[in-house]
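Researcher: Re-running this chain for the archive, since the previous output was lost when a drive failed. Same request as before.
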Amino acid sequence: MPAPAFGERLREWRLVRRVSQARLAEDAEVSTRHLSYLENGRANPSREMVLVLASALELPLRERNDWLTTAGFAPAYSETPLSESAMAPLRDAVQRTLEHHDPHPAVAVGSSYDVQLVNQGMQKLMGTFVVEPTPEVVSNLMVATFHPKGVRPFVVDWEPLAGLFVERLHREARLPGGERTAELLEKVLSYPGVPSSFAHPDPRRILAPFVALHLKKGDLELRFFSFLCSVGTPIDVTAEELSIELYNPMDDVTAAWLRS
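Model: Regenerated structure tokens:
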């Protein structure tokens, strides 16, 4: 499928942001007529105009680069792997943040929930509750949750928890530029035992500010709550998309196990 033209992408994001042409034109300091011409393809944007409109709509840096490419310009923002030497200060800072959370589990993930860094608490948790800790299973947070050889067999009331996660994926996949998340969604939905109802978004699923995780393996029973913290930076795609998920014990038994 060919990539949408610039005007189409502009209109999609304007509607996502629920901004009228008049309001966007005012924020970008252009005429409503010119903005209309850009949306319907009767006018082509300058590089500066692409960046101004993207800023006015508060687009993610990856999408700003895609807009520039669609309009015929070179990307403006780098996408540097976290393993590169140029990212060492950020990588070290994130690793220290994870280590400060020890012995409680913590993990840094990218935009598609790919695992970037973990602390010792997360290593202990995954080593205890992942059936087969192969790279395929443990390299992605969503895969580790949905894969039958991940943590799934040990999650008490797995289906409600997975329903919250799949709703998050549906929401992110529906955004313009959400193709990578859509691929991840399709992947986790293909695993055996995943309810067929998960294939469609359900507005009745509430996206809570934090997620409760109840694990049980034999006599060991642990309870956590977790939440995502955005790292973010205005200059690099990788850094902007980086998030940290922090797990915290919900009872004394879990806290004692983490300290053991």
